[in-house]
């Protein structure tokens, strides 16, 4: 295989994993914009997505579409409960404390999942066959196409939600200024709840589409969360377009690094990129510097 | 340092140093030794969190740098132990300085991300750089600590050394927060802009505190390596960083005595949770969440608050609590 074809192949597989990073990164941005906190349980949503899908589809033998929808609902419900329970009940509204509350939630979810689903890695069958397709000389798994398709669909649906619907506009208002939103009669509380549920749903989608390619186990959440987080920083924290670009870029760089340099240092590479970005352009690729008024 | 703190510190030291006379079991001593090391890390981290208002999720990496640097340099290259410990501290200081300078200049919690990323990188290097670090199976045969012929070769001997070091660190930190530097940091934590207006170079203070806290973690790491004589990457993963942050929060940010309590409690807790082996991750997570939700200023402060409220509810309690 020529070097260029190899690079092309790695880029394609990088875009595939990158798409799921993008979904996780959007989830981070949603909650960050509504509340200012970094939700460390975001990666657990991805893990739960895979686990619920396996339960519904493989164990209970429900039809795939039904299992898909049920999984999204279940994980969105976990996001809902996370907000209604610990985050909302916390006595201190200091960001630092709330961030650590989500860390606690993340550990609890992980522990609970270990008890429910055990420690062994599990997998899902691909949505449509395992025969790779050839595209300009590079092999693509059908699952990759599903991942692209569903990610693109999710991003378009979200853009419509934010620009075209009242709830979406209200969420943007909350992100712009919580106080002003409250004063103009937007139920900020409910918007925050919505952002958690929506992040749960997005995490679930990422988990469902990624599991057939990578397998899942109770402890994949941490790494997934960290990657999504780096993607969000890389693109510009809080921006949706930034999250998508950051996710795809991180996926591609990681895949190229793993393929051409060394696969052992794949995860280290992702964080090295994060550090370099933080040093030279801490607001991310699309981020703008902000001034604080005193 | 106030008079009250001095008395507490003396009482605490007396209690700590007389404890080994009542303990027969070496395993108990080992757990206490580990908590002494954790206290050292947690006090440093609390200076950063409680006074500079920044979180580090990479203290496991600094702890690990200390451990691996002094482990590898003394074992593979035959360096003398004590100078190597200092060398590891100096190196960690340099690394922390390099991370702190760009990230602490920015608004928001960029340090969290930078340290977290750094932690993952260090962890992966420990795992993958097998010829040097021993990889996943760890690095063994690290020499024990010794001081001019006296070898710290039992849990009991190391106990006095480790606790002396961590009480020393506590003493220095208590002094620090009651000094000019401490008052500057308190101002910084309250309101950074106001502090700057009052002529405090907040950036420089934040970087200095971050470096100090990384150095304390590095010292703890070196002592750990020479005490256990075997290190493996698992000890220095992101999870340890989380654990020490939890210890700070359970003890209460900004309360150094709280840190001692938090580190002690959460080091013993997993030992107590051995009984519920399968559930310990879950229980750990729930405790962390519960403490943060209900006692955001730490368990000690929280419980003290409840007691005071009870007292007030009793007839005549109002006067008593005022007195």
Give a brief rundown of this model.
The complex is a heterodimer of chains A (294) and B (323). Chain A is mainly α.
* Count of individual beta strands of chain B: 4
- Major sheet description of chain A: 2 strands, antiparallel
Which range best describes the helical content of chain B: under 10%, 10-25%, 25-40%, 40-55%, 55-70% or over 70%? Answer: over 70%
**Uncertain stretches of 5 or more adjacent residues of chain A:** none
Number of separate domains of chain B: 1
Structural summary, described in words:
Chain A has 294 residues and is mostly helical. Chain A has one domain. Chain A contains eleven helices and two strands, in the order ααααββααααααα. Chain A is globular, with a radius of gyration of 19 Å. In chain A, 51% of the residues are buried. The mean pLDDT of chain A is 87. Chain B is mostly helical and 323 residues long. Chain B has one domain. Helix content of chain B is 74%, strand content 2%. Chain B has 15 helices and four strands. In chain B, the strands form two sheets. Chain B has a two-stranded antiparallel sheet. The longest helix of chain B is centred in the middle third of the chain and has 27 residues. Chain B is globular, with a radius of gyration of 20 Å. The C terminus of chain B is likely disordered. At the A-B interface, α4, α9 and α11 of A face α4, α5, α11 and α13 of B.
């Amino acid at each position: 295989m020529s070097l260029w074809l190899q690079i092309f192949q790695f880029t394609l597989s990088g875009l595939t994993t990158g798409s799921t990073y993008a979904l996780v990164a959007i989830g981070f941005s949603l909650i960050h914009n509504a509340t200012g906190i970094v939700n460390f349980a975001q990666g657990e949503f991805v893990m739960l997505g895979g686990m619920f899908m396996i339960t519904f589809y493989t164990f209970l033998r429900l039809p795939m579409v039904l299992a898909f929808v049920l999984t999204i609902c279940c994980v969105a419900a976990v996001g809902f409960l996370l907000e209604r329970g610990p985050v909302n009940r916390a006595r201190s509204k200091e960001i630092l404390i709330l961030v650590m509350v989500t860390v606690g939630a993340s550990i609890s979810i992980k522990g609970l999942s270990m008890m429910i689903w055990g420690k062994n890695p599990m997998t899902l069958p691909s949505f449509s066959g395992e025969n790779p397709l050839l595209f300009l000389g590079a092999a693509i798994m059908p699952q990759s196409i599903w991942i692209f398709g569903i990610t693109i669909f999710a991003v378009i649906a979200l853009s419509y939600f934010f620009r075209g619907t009242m709830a979406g506009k209200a969420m943007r208002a909350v992100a712009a200024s919580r106080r002003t939103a409250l004063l103009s009669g937007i139920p900020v509380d409910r918007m925050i709840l919505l952002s958690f549920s929506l992040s749960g749903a997005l995490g679930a989608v990422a988990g469902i589409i990624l599991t057939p390619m990578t397998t899942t186990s109770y402890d994949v959440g941490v790494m997934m969360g960290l990657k999504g987080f780096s993607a969000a920083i890389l693109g510009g924290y809080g921006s949706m377009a930034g999250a998508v670009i950051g996710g795809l870029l991180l996926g591609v760089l990681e895949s190229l690094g793993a393929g051409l340099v060394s696969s052992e240092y794949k995860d280290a590479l992702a964080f090295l990129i994060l550090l370099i970005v933080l040093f030279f352009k801490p607001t991310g690729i699309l981020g703008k510097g902000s001034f604080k008024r005193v | 340092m106030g008079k009250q703190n001095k008395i507490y510190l003396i009482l605490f030291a007396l209690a700590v140093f007389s404890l080994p006379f009542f303990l027969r079991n070496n395993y108990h001593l080992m757990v206490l030794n580990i908590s002494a090391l954790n206290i050292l890390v947690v006090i440093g981290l609390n200076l950063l969190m409680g006074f500079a208002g920044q979180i580090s999720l990479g203290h496991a990496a600094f702890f690990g740098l200390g451990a691996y640097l002094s482990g590898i340099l003394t074992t593979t290259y035959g360096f003398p132990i004590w100078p190597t410990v200092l060398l590891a501290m100096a190196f960690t200081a340099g690394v922390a300085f390099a991370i702190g300078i760009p990230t602490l200049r920015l608004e928001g919690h960029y340090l969290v991300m930078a340290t977290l990323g750094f932690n993952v990188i260090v962890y992966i290097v420990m795992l993958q750089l097998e010829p040097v670090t021993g990889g996943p199976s760890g690095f063994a045969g690290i020499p024990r600590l010794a001081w001019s012929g006296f070898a710290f070769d039992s849990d009991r001997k190391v106990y006095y050394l480790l606790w002396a070091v961590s009480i020393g660190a506590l003493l220095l930190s208590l002094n620090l927060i009651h000094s000019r530097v401490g008052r500057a940091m308190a101002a910084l934590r309250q309101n950074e802009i106001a502090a700057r207006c009052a002529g405090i170079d907040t950036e420089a203070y934040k970087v200095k505190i971050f470096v100090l806290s990384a150095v304390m973690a590095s010292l703890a790491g070196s002592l750990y390596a020479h005490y256990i004589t075997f290190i493996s990457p698992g000890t220095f993963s992101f999870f340890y960083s989380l654990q020490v942050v939890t210890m700070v929060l359970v003890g209460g940010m900004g309360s150094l005595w709280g840190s001692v309590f938090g580190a002690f409690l959460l080091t013993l807790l997993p030992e107590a949770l051995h009984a519920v082996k399968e559930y310990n991750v879950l229980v750990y997570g729930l405790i962390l969440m519960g403490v943060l939700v209900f006692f955001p200023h730490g368990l000690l402060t929280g419980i003290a608050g409840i007691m005071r409220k009870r007292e007030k509810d009793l007839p005549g309690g109002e006067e008593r609590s005022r007195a």
